[in-house]
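This part of the workshop introduces the protein records we will be handling. Each record describes a single protein and holds just a pair of labelled lines. Instead of coordinates, the fold is spelled out as a row of discrete tokens. To make this concrete, we reproduce a full record directly below:
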Amino acid sequence: MRARWLVLALTACATSERMGDRVNPETPLWYTHPSGDLDVFARRQLTMDTRVAGEPYEHGRPELDTAHNRVFVGSSDRGLYALRSSNLSTIWRFETANIVQCEPLYDRELDVVYFGSNDGGLYAVRASDGVLVYRFNSGFEIGKKPVLYGESLIFANASDQLFSIERRTGKLQWQVHRSPAAGMELAGYSGPALDHGKVYFAFSDGHVGAFDARDGSEKWSPVDLAAVQVQPRSAAGLLTRAMLVSLTNPKTLLFHGAFFPQFLSADRPVAPQAAALSLVFLALALLVDGTWALVAARARPLLARGVRLGRLSGGLLIGAGLGLAFARPK
């Protein structure tokens, strides 16, 4: 039996220990620490197992309507659910012809929820009662969240097609399609991203394009991410950048301003003494940093085998701090 559960939780302050080596725990963090990482206040089985299709877990993320205390979430039982956020009871459920793994989009002005289904449809339903407003057939599964731009609703499907429709009526405004290399279409497509009137979309063949959100015209030719290479920086450029960072670092300036004057003699010229101290400091810094680099290079195989470098360095810092705290001047 493949159970699907929806859990609403409030995140609490988590310590750095919980965030470090427990990224992929065997059980959820709230299972043994109900009052630590997450505070669970409602939990229910959402999906009807008799209608489940596809993989034994959900991909879709919920959409929140905080003004009316509603949660909208799709499911692999081919439905979109509207739930009360207080107790997760069902307000309504809308049935589609295939699984719903698309994150819904709530339109607060129209009180409408937009979402896609693996049946190829982009649905608009009333958020209050789940009544269908319209369905736009894209021909291929829609699993990524749509975006709103004025009166336009923009979304993509698994066939590398980008659509813009009227958000009120579902009428097609424009459409963009790119045939992947060798005719291969992948399921790992992206959703559209909107910024300053431009729609950015990554195609399944590794190209990224930008289009005018008003009419779908191409703003620049699709860029092949596989062909983009990072230009290596010259040694002179790296040295110049490091010097600028050091010279503008307030911690460095404060340290030298507080540390060096203790070793300067008022009876002698200040400039030669400061220059000598700077050269000594530079030599010590090169020696220490170079030693660290060599040790790190030698210890790389050891560290790769699971030595907890974070705990080791943290212990050293704590020890140094305690040493300074209990040190007394002679």
